[in-house]
Amino acid sequence: MNTTKQPEALRLAEALDYMDLGRMQAEDAQKAADELRRLHSVNAMLLEALEYWMPDETMVQAPHLGEWQQHIAAIAAAKEGT
Question: Are 68 and 60 in contact (CB under 8 A)?
């Protein structure tokens, strides 16, 4: 059984897929759902690239360690929603 939480953007996209709206509204809802999925995918790729290029803690000079820790925390926060 998969116990991982579905990202909010994907949950909303799925909800938009199944909304009972008028023709024009349904088309807009589908476009919004598609765009949420596209943005989720792009965000995941960007996070992966960012993690790849982030230096290891041992490579960070002491004056920049606090800044590095903030960047690592931002990556972790972004991944919580993916």
Answer: yes
CA distance 82 to 78: 7
- Tens-digit pLDDT profile for residues 23-53: 657 777 788 888 888 998 999 999 999 888 8
Encode pLDDT of 59-68 as tens digits: 888 888 899 8
Burial 10-29 (b: 16+ CB within 10 A, else e): bebbeebeeeeeeeeeeeeb
* CA distance readout (Å), 52 to 64, 75, 77: 18, 11, 17
Judged by phi (left if over 0) then psi (alpha if -120 to 50, else beta), residue 21 lies in beta
The two three-digit tokens of residue 31, written as one number: 């476009």
